[in-house]
Amino acid sequence: MIQFTIEDRNGERQPIEIPEGINLSLMEVLKASEYNILATCRGMALCATCHVQVLNGLNALPSAQDAELDMLDTLPDADSDSRLACQIRVDDRLEGAIFRIKSDEPS
């Protein structure tokens, strides 16, 4: 099992446990876990509505690719620890990571 933590927009943290080899993105796990994530582009790195801040474990993640970096550049609140959840694959590199949901809540 892979265990990581999600901090919601209210600052509340919840551990998430996912079986290894599930082949999902963090965005898909967030939506399946009923976090209110818009994910308008359905994981294509085109909308930034799945913006997360990596509070712990950033160095273990693969580097962001150009499309993700370009989209993050459009966000006023993006920082060096910002990522798009749709571009992060759930695998053992997420073990112990902490992600804060940064995207606006859908209305």
From TrEMBL:
Pfam families tied to this protein? Fer2
Give the protein's cofactors. Answer: [2Fe-2S] cluster
Under Gene3D superfamilies, the record lists:
3.10.20.30
| An MF annotation (GO) of this entry | 2 iron, 2 sulfur cluster binding
PROSITE patterns in the record: 2FE2S_FER_2
GO biological process entries: P450-containing electron transport chain
The reply to whether Nucleotide-binding figures as a keyword in the UniProt entry is: no
Q: Tell whether Acyltransferase is among the UniProt keywords.
A: no
Name the SUPFAM superfamilies for this protein.
2Fe-2S ferredoxin-like
In the record, the note on similarity to other proteins reads:
Belongs to the adrenodoxin/putidaredoxin family.
What this protein is called in its record is Ferredoxin
Organism expressing this protein natively:
Spirosoma telluris
| Organism lineage string | Bacteria, Pseudomonadati, Bacteroidota, Cytophagia, Cytophagales
